[in-house]
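Appendix C reproduces, verbatim, an entry submitted by the partner laboratory led by Prof. M.T., so that reviewers can inspect both the input and the predicted structure.
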Amino acid sequence: MRRLVALSVVLAAAGAGCSEQPKPETAPAPMDKVMEENQKAAVAIVHAAKEVAKKANDHAQEVADAAKDAVEAITAVARDAFDGTNDAVKSD
């Protein structure tokens, strides 16, 4: 019984020591400062997103121009082939 009481005392003392929370070395930032930092971060994110969108738009325009050039080239080749076929048929 004494051992049980002694064990209970030791465990209670150990538990009491563990329940203490370490004190932070710095005080939490005031809410206004946190909100200001969040606003700055949000503005930076928006600017980055705009830049990415602009680059994507520029790239999309380049791809569209290349596709248009490819279609024009294919059309020219097809037209030449068709004209050549017509010429061959007419000459027969």
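Residues 31-91 form the longest helix (61 residues). Additional entries are available on request from the coordinating office.
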